[in-house]
Specification:
7 strands, single chain, seven-stranded mixed beta sheet, globular
Amino acid sequence: MLPDRLLIFAKLPAAGRVKTRLTPPLPPDEAASVYEACLRDVVARSARERARVELWYEDGAGAEAYFQAEFAHLPQGVQATGDLGEKLRDAFQRCFDDQGERTVIIGSDSPTLPEGVLGAAFDDLHEVDAVLGPTRDGGYYLVGVRGASWPRAERLFRGIPWSSDEVFRTTLERSAECGLELRLLPGWYDIDRLEDLQQALDDVPADSHLGRWLASPAAQLYLGR
């Protein structure tokens, strides 16, 4: 097993179940198309890293068939049930039980993440207990933990007000409480709202999946381009 593991957390791109903060103005099927484009770009971006890339999906009707058909080249895992903290704790635990030395988990919402950020996360985990990539909405797009710091670091995922603007701040407090040395990566943004898609117009390559969606008639209609 490679010592560095990069886990992508994902969901089935089903209309009405993903990117709900884009609806309205986008209809649910277009929001799902945006989600799938972001996911494919994150997978492509991650494939350029030296780590073992794995796709961990949220279980549900149709999820296994979709991910096995569309991403058969990637090792896959099923996320635990429960809130995000329980999913993260379970994923880290399973990786470290499998002799992983450094594990980084990202979502599928940051397709425009600059080159070098993922590599920096693994480099930092040679020196510190954990790394965190903050987002401008008070959450984070990436979290990484060193195996030698587990299970002490599992407190990073307990008692966190998930889906709020307090996630990042509370995680920093947990880090200090359990004496972890945590290093911050550059701040970035997730694709969650219409203004994030507007920002992506300046940051996404034209030949990427999201870039092609942004050039579509639907994007021109709903983004007012």
